[in-house]
Structure prediction request, 379 residues.
Amino acid sequence: MTEVKFSKGLEGVPATETVLSYINGKEGKLYYLGIPIEEWAEHSTYEEVAFALLKRKLPTKDELEIFDAALKNSREIPDDVIDFIYDTYDISPDAHPMSVLRSTVSLLESYDDDAKKDDLQAKFRISIRLISRFPTIVAYIDRARKGLDPIPPDHSLGHAANFLYMLTGKRPSDYEARVMDVALILHADHGMNASTFTSLVIASTLSDMYSAIVGGIGALKGPLHGGANERVLRMLEEIGSEGNVESYIDNALSQKKKIFGFGHRVYKAYDPRARILKSIAEELSKNSKYYNIAVKVEDYMMKKLSHKGIFPNVDFYSGMVYNALGISTDLFTPIFAIGRVAGWCAHILEYLEDNRIFRPKSIYKGELDKPYVPIEQRK
Prediction:
């Protein structure tokens, strides 16, 4: 039997070529279109990042205004879909928001005539609708499970500010809106991660855009991917106080338990997104017990494991930022999806320009030419 090189989890195996994002894991750097993430976070908006990823270029002022108007005009979702969200929580009050997001996006496909078309322009139009509607869906999910009426989008507000408004019914401060904007920018894309790869695999079969994005949502839900930010806050709650940090970590490491928010498959240095979010978390929640516990956790983990290339990742501080904004813990991963949907769509559009269906191999480890044993002779 021919020997095939094996890399568990496809680690380090190139799956495609892209100009969208690049990670220098050794130096802890992330780029969108070759521009460092720090510059995007300081100077840009999520709307501009979404355009840049979808079109693979920086927009002109006129192009960004047209794109922003298209996003604003696509925020509403059909009444039947809103009813579906509310009916879901009537039937299953404890449904996880990621599960309802997944099902709602799947339902939206049946309301979109472009979903039946194969051309890239139709898929681009769907991308605008998905990016625009993810905040609407997540806000309605949160209000439905709280027994509150949905708040329609406010077209005078930007993407991030409108999401916070639909959650609470109150216009966020400029600072709160900017914090959410930066968080979405930092989550917009991140190379060939599990959810992006899942979306690409589905899209490569020439399935519809909605199916591909639903696959991405399903992958992101897992605690080893997007769900880790929820686990971080729950871990901090479990630790309870700064005085418990060292014993908690020592006990967890001795049992080979994962410390959520630390380590990354690609980064062997400090995650640049975590560095940005840490400064925001310090400003927002420096007096909260969660922040003080988190700082102690980081200090102790860095002392014990930084020599092994284990540093805080984006999940470690993102949850604290959302918590400081008054957002429920189980909305953290859906907010990740609100940011990442632009990257999913952009990678799909890029890949389909020169599509080839994914068909990796597996290494067979069983026996060959075994006889079939009739059922009455089996033991």
Notes: The domain at 29-222+340-352 is CATH 1.10.580.10 (Citrate Synthase; domain 1). The longest strand covers residues 21-24.
